[in-house]
Amino acid sequence: MTSSADATDAPSSSGYRSVRAELEGLTTEAFRPEHSDIDRLPTLDIAKIMNGEDATVPTAVAAQLPNIAAAIDAIAERMGRGGRLVYAGAGTAGRLGVLDASECPPTFNTDPAEVVGLIAGGPAAMTTSAEGAEDSAELAVADLSALGLTADDTVVGVSASGRTPYAIGAVEHARALGALTVGLSCNADSALAAAAEHGIEVVVGPELLTGSTRLKAGTAQKLVLNMLSTITMIRLGKTYGNLMVDVRASNEKLRARSRRIVALATGASDEEIEAALAATDGEVKNAILTILGTVDAPTAAHLLKATNGHLREALATTHQP
To answer: Which one of 134, 201, 207, 283 is the catalytic residue?
Structure first.
């Protein structure tokens, strides 16, 4: 006779079997029998094996470059008209999104609200595991609703497996609102990529430690997120060549970097650089324009505003090379 407890547990057991079968079909979850004795190897040998595994990641990313580039052009177009870039993920994927978003303000002088990282379980999940939160698509909808998502925004769902309900729910909700959507996963034919307008599937293969997607999958996601934000910012005029001319000088290191950037861009003397930065309240891009364009600080500010912050375009209006 089946007890009431057994009856209660039966659906749960069935659910676990279903999820287990689904995971076993994912390359990121595959078991590597050749590494079953890795714990018995010398440390140097393990390090060499792990390094060899990591070396395969850039090749997997390279296979997705056309899809990555298409996504970047679409993101830049939306952000160019005032939209935001929002990452949504759980666990490692969510943390990587929050990391990428948090580095944009000091690097590109963006407003913290322009590039946003959402992690299932909220800010506390950055340091304390909240793995259960990843199973809730409704939680993703609530988090995006709190942002007041619009059709000008972009939502990038990030999930190594490509099956995480939080990431898929975020993309589906955003797409229903007319926002641009990108699905970044590390498995082919993923539900996440299928749900998004732009699917990026970086197939890195089985992990050294079975199912530990903070390893190769995490590295791949970090590389792609670096591209999405960095190249988008290049397209938006946040750089001059490969110089970070929108850097925010918020500490001594960055203040020194600001002066070096102005020097590299202009070849001006230290005295000229200090005068230009003083006149432009420390704004690197404006200081460069005053020197190269031989204009005063108010004119530089006006020209940059007229060209949406693109220094090359602003310089062209002063008839400088």
So the answer is: 134
